[in-house]
Amino acid sequence: MKMKTDLLLKDLSEMTRTNLNSSREFLQRTAVELNHRPASESWSALECLAHLNLYGDFYLPEIERALESSRHSTEEDFKSGLLGNYFAKMMLPGGKLKKMKTFKEKDPFGSDLDKTTIEKFIRQQEQLLDLLCRSSQVSLTRTKTAISISKLLKLRLGDTFRVVIYHNQRHLVQAQKALATNK
After folding, report:
1. What is the pTM of this model?
2. 76 CB contacts (<8 Å, ≥6 apart)?
3. Concatenated DSSP letters of 137-152
4. To 5 degrees, how large is the angle CA 128–CA 172–CA 170?
5. CA-based max dimension of the chain
6. Among positive and negative, which fits the CA dihedral 113, 117, 54, 16?
7. Alpha carbon distances (Å) from 19 to 32, 75, 118, 126
8. Quick one: DSSP state of residue 43?
9. 98 pLDDT band (50/70/90 cuts)?
10. Which residues contact 144 (CB under 8 A, 6 or more apart)?
11. What whole-number distance in Å separates Cα of residue 9 and Cα of residue 53?
């Protein structure tokens, strides 16, 4: 995939603002609604957000580090890597979501959660918007980040943003579905 860098950053920023607005709406819900599971093995809305917070705890500092250490200036076009594009497309919500098994350390199932989970997610989305803005000064293609499943594998910064933001979208859809079953 090849895309204009400024257009990619604009699209990702808009998606993040949408994710941020969706998560703010969760603050209007009761603890009972937020902790409701549509099925015994499914996550509640709060568990979905807690899962995203665990990934944000890894990726936000990793992106920050990559931005601070990058010596590569911005380019007109972002070129996605083969692996990064594959991971990003896997995360995209749409149609019937393919169920994926999560890593045990990123699984919040059964955690005692409250609205501070939402507040943390909101702070992470605000930080992500700041990182997207700052990333316009570096190469999204040549700047690399580690990924949560292996420090040995590196993704292009643009792909890392896509994976994180699409993953956020995916689980916000899941959280909204969990809330919708509690009527």
Report:
1. 0.92
2. 4, 5
3. GB-TTT-EEEETTEEE
4. 85
5. 52
6. positive
7. 22, 27, 12, 10
8. P
9. low
10. 66, 154, 155, 156, 157
11. 22
Angle, helices 5-26 vs 116-134, to 10°: value is: 170
Q: Point out which residues pair with 4 in neighbouring strands.
A: 77
Range list of H helices, the chain: 5-26, 31-35, 45-69, 82-91, 116-134, 157-180
Q: Give residue-wise pLDDT tens across range 121-173.
A: 999 999 999 999 999 999 999 999 998 877 778 999 999 999 999 999 999 99
- The pair of three-digit structure tokens given for residue 110, joined into one six-digit string: 């059964």
Q: Are 45 and 175 in contact (CB under 8 A)?
A: yes
Percent of the chain surpassing pLDDT 90: 78
Closest CA to 52 of 175, 149, 167, 180: 167
Q: pLDDT tens digits for 159-181?
A: 999 999 999 999 999 999 999 98
pLDDT at 26 over 60: yes
- Core vs surface per residue 14-38: b (16+ CB within 10 A) or e: ebbeebbebbeebeebeeebbbbeb
**Sign of the Cα pseudo-torsion (179, 60, 148, 95, in order):** positive
